[in-house]
Amino acid sequence: MTESVAELLNSMEQQCRQVIDAQGSAEPCIIGIHTGGVWVAEALRERLGLPGPIGTLDISFYRDDFSHIGLHPQVKPSEIPFDIEDRHILLIDDVLHTGRTIRAALNEIFDYGRPACITLAVLIDRGGRELPIAAQITGATLDLNADQEVQVQGPEPLSYRIVTKELPND
Amino acid sequence: MTEQHLQAGPLPSGMQLHDDGRLRHLLTIEGLPRELLVEIMDTAESFVSVQAKTVKKVPLLRGKTIVNLFFEPSTRTRTTFELAAKRLSADVLNINIATSATTKGESLLDTLRNIEAMFCDMFIVRHADSGAAHFIARHVAPHVSVLNAGDGSHAHPTQAMLDMFTIRRHKGDFTRLKVAIVGDVLHSRVARSQIHALNILNTAEVRVIAPRTLLPADVEKLGVHVFNDMDEGLHDVDVVIMLRLQKERMQSALLPSAHEYFQLYGLTNERLKAAREDAIVMHPGPANRGVEIASDVADGSRSVILEQVSNGIAIRMAIMSMVTGAAQ
Questions:
Q1: Best interface-test mutation with B: which of A34, A60, A61 has the largest number of B CBs within 10 A?
Q2: Cα(first)–Cα(last) distance of chain B, in Å?
Q3: Please, what is the average pLDDT of chain B?
Q4: Which of A31, A34, A67, A76 has the highest number of chain B CBs within 10 A, making it the mutation to test binding with B?
Q5: ipTM at complex level
Q6: Fold of B158-304
């Protein structure tokens, strides 16, 4: 069953405004992680009325499983069309699971410069963390089993569904 | 000698691919599927963005050791391979071995075993003999990949791919392009690899422009249109690729003199008028100014020669990461 994300985005928008107010500094720059994270980032940028463009990251070159599975065949260019030095960054992804993607994204961001701070915002936190990483802004928190997966579809309309996948036997 | 040059080297290109179609070695462009060439260029596009970062490095090949095994002198190719490897966070070993008649067969294998014993993951090989990289690829341990950085007059696949990448970034769709390759096609491994790549990518028309003495006997079989007249050959082309005229060829009586060669086949702004208005000019380097290309063309607004060098880093990063990730 496909779920709409309007309410999740409403909630994220509200939390973002609180974080931005608390920062009290210049407006943050938005960076989305390919592919779903970019969709969520675009939707939030529009809601928050921030000027574009957003930055996009493809973390394929920073993955920790490269030596096991090789390079993702459809790796996209990372584009950060602004200087991140001393800026407040809203890092946005669609689903937070093990935390490994965020670890890779943080490493990549620091190769562009030294931001003042980074706030992590995710549409869905599905649990199952393998690294000490937490999101400050969350659209929804789900408690899913290991054989369940959140699939986000987009960009327009943005939606998600929960599917049960076959686990390998070993 | 001519016939031998064309036939030396080409081996079943199947040994370049894993069973699942992923790249294992890159020895020659010949026989590779179009999707793979496109994948190489797509991946390189992502590596271009790495060069825009403050830290121009990604941790992809951390802990891997890459050996530049050069039996023939080279500056550009070796340094761009080295830089590409370093930007992927690999460790790089440069080994330059002077070419000599005895550096073949058993001693080549000996060298190989010695370096392999140092736990290396990839060999970048340049050798004056056609087929040297194939020979090495056939004898390396299963986890080692071999990239051909030029073997005799046979192939120079990474140069061809960086040229294709440069063309694609400027012109997009190959199926509408006319591309002319000008100069010493006979001795050029670059030309041979370019011709294969252009044809695999379905280029509308591939032309070679050269005097008969600098063309292989059966060059048409490679899928090109042959022109002996420069102005005729350049008419309406989108891309002009100039080849380096190796000075040593002059001594072997294939050409009367550098001056006369320039008169007939040198690229000048005047000659370039025959090509399309938006045509780009390429050269694999190092260029002999005043021999195959006039200085004002090499430095002119239509020249993409320096872009080719930058693109060479991205394309080599792409190929290195594709073969390493796939090595199981």
A1: A61
A2: 40
A3: 89
A4: A67
A5: 0.81
A6: Rossmann fold (3.40.50)
Mean pLDDT of A19-37: 90
Inter-chain CB proximity B46 and A76 less than 8 Å: yes
In CATH, the architecture of A2-63+74-164 is: 3-Layer(aba) Sandwich (3.40)
Which superfamily does CATH assign the domain made up of B2-156+309-326 to? Aspartate/ornithine carbamoyltransferase (3.40.50.1370)
A3 vs B22, more confident: B22
Residues of A in contact with B321 (CB under 8 A): 61, 71
Q: What is the pLDDT of residue B37?
A: 97
pLDDT in tens, B72-116: 888 889 999 999 999 999 999 998 886 544 555 567 788 888 888
* Alpha carbon distances (Å) from B150 to A24, B69, B104, B109, B196: 58, 11, 16, 18, 15
Q: How far is the C-alpha of B86 from the C-alpha of B56, rounded, in Å? A: 9
Strands A29-33 and A88-96: parallel
Please, which residues have CB within 8 angstroms of residue B121's CB and are 6 or more apart in sequence?
B64, B65, B66, B90, B143, B144, B145, B324, B327
d(CA B47, CA B265): 36
Tell me if chain B has a CB within 8 Å of the CB of A83.
no
For B40, which residue in chain A has the nearest alpha carbon? A73
